[in-house]
Design a protein that fits this description.
2 copies of one chain form a homodimer. By secondary structure, chain A is of the alpha+beta class. Helices cover 35% and strands 23% of the residues of chain A. The first copy, chain A, contains 9 helices and 13 strands. Chain A has helices at 3-11, 88-97, 124-140, 146-156, 210-220, 227-244, 247-266, 277-291, 315-321, and strands at residues 23-35, 40-42, 47-48, 52-69, 75-78, 81-83, 107-114, 168-171, 184-186, 194-199, 297-300, 306-311, 326-329. In chain A, strands 1, 4, 5, 6, 7, 8 and 9 form a 7-stranded mixed β-sheet that branches. In chain A, helix 3 crosses helix 4 (146-156). The longest helix of chain A has 20 residues, at 247-266. The first copy, chain A, starts with a helix and ends in a 5-residue tail after the last strand. The model of chain A has no long low-confidence stretch (mean pLDDT 94).
Chain lengths: 334, 334
């Protein structure tokens, strides 16, 4: 099954119907996985080998608007600035939109406004494709369910399927070849005191895309075969920690899960190491603070940046240690 | 079985006999594992969970002299400077010597002269205990075989059993509870062009001893269960590389083996990370040089320092990149 067929399966009788509105728009929050998504069982459909669990980043995310235009090709804007169609970012959006072109000549203008630093490893593609999916739903008037939106968003970027809600979200890996059982749902936990701190280490360029890094890990890392077991264990721990609001357990499990993911990369051939000297400096700092009794943990995605987990009560101490930290309140008044 | 009983088993009828000389002395080279020793199956006897393979560091090592003295306690010197008996270094030596005291009042003076930086993570305890074992053999006139010396040296420090020879050495883990089948032997390979470069990152203090780090890894790392498989695979690869002088295969396997060891530490709870920002900087530099076509690989032990593997033909390029690098020629004219 390809992306086009997957979209057809979701849209059913609405497939190939014209947009009912002139434009559609929507916001989607970015998200950070507390239990990581690492490894695809289907590259075309972004089907994961394991389930994953994330926390959304409140009002940090993407606001996307889309309209039908009279043109032979899409017009892509990022924060109101035109992006060349040859650009990778534009190309991904155009490819994602292909299944929804009711005629070959149907083109779109898309403007993605993001309030998180692009390429900062804070899942900008996740919130981007989630917002675009919701905007499309409005443009065409599909009235899709959250589950259906989650499946469509996944076709753009795997982790996008987790960006349709605020709070805690779980993406079930599913087992079907067509991916119709691989979507996210909002979990019924809330934790108003929980804070996320973004430590951006900007001067580093990604040595390898996350898709390619996943491929190499799955194909060459001798430790990857234990990753599904690790995830199964960590998901139970994290859900339990959310349930009883055990911050230490949450932080410890999330940190170990991230380190395990990076350990599978480190044992790939050639090795993959997203960490820079600064990343390592901050890791040691986190551990040092913890030894001094402060409740702070980190998680790290396919990039050098660290994301800290801590409680509101320790905000001042965290800000005193890292002046440039970006604080995120995951609860969102909407 | 304890250390005393192990020593008794080795020395047989010579156990408890008086020294036949007034003093004994010996040199032993340090060694670096190309396939690491990580994890003990017996803490008291330093019996490893897996076999390992090392390269000795030529004339870098320890020269140790020992004599019987008329005193109620040992006198320990490091590079001719007295060390307090309460010091950890002195305490380990005194404990190691206990099985060989023919009377309770028998005390020794030991002077260890080392030409490698102490605590630099270049196996100073390995060459120290190997040299001490050989010096003891001379002092007492035991005439032990290399195999017997290797077993005795192992009681002082696991990797010391590999420091009795120059060149490439393999330590067979063995399966017996008494460790009588757990000793090293010299491998019949030589590689005159092979060079080792020590990159010392001196400003870092070890956050945890290697013995404690091994314990924590074995007890808590979810990835450790794959370590024995990793070693079994890597030992075959390394021996084959040595046999056919395939430098790329040797370097690649040694580097991945070290990274796998550190990956098991990273997934311990709490995580163990010996790398400092400088370590990570140098790792990325090695990979960058390799992408530019230079044949250079690293290995890393329980500390922040990196040890580079390269061929004599590339010495100049390596020295141009790292001015402070210590170059080691593993072949030893003796």
């Amino acid at each position: 099954m390809n992306k086009n067929e997957a979209a057809k399966t979701i849209l059913k009788t609405q497939y190939n119907q014209q947009p009912i509105n002139e434009n559609g728009e929507a916001f989607a929050p970015s998200n950070i996985a507390l239990c990581k998504y690492w490894g695809k069982r289907n590259l075309e459909l972004n089907l994961p080998i394991t389930s994953s669990l994330s926390i959304s980043l409140g009002d940090k995310g993407a606001h996307t608007s889309i309209e039908v235009i009279d043109s032979h090709q899409d017009k892509i804007y990022l924060n109101n600035i035109p992006v060349a169609n040859t650009d990778k970012f534009a190309h991904r959006i155009t490819k994602f939109l292909d299944p929804f072109r009711t005629t070959k000549k149907l083109a779109f203008a898309i403007n993605t406004k993001s309030n998180i630093p692009i390429g900062s490893g804070v899942a900008s593609s996740a919130c981007g494709f989630a917002a675009l999916t919701k905007a499309l739903n409005n443009l065409f008037g599909w009235n899709l369910t959250d589950t259906e939106l989650s499946i469509l968003a996944r076709l753009g970027s795997g982790s996008a399927c987790r960006s349709l809600w605020h709070g805690f979200v779980k993406w079930e890996a599913g087992i079907q070849d067509d991916g119709m059982d691989s979507y996210a749902t909002k979990l019924n936990y809330n934790w108003p005191d929980l804070r996320i701190g973004l430590l951006l280490i900007s001067d580093a360029t990604k040595p390898i895309s996350s898709t390619n890094a996943m491929l190499r890990t799955v194909n060459t890392s001798s430790f990857y075969k234990l990753w599904p077991q690790q995830v199964a264990h960590d998901l139970v721990q994290i859900e339990h920690a959310l349930q009883i609001k055990d911050f230490q357990k949450l932080g410890e499990t999330a940190e170990l899960n991230a380190l395990a993911m990076h350990a599978t990369m480190l044992t790939s051939n050639p090795p993959i190491l997203y960490s820079t000297p600064k990343t390592i400096e901050y890791m040691h700092k986190v551990w040092q603070l913890r030894q001094q009794g402060l409740g702070v943990y980190f998680t790290q995605d396919a990039g050098p940046n660290l994301k800290l987990l801590f409680l509101e009560q320790d905000l001042k101490k965290i800000q005193n240690t890292w002046q440039d930290i970006i604080i995120i309140t995951n609860e969102h008044k909407s």
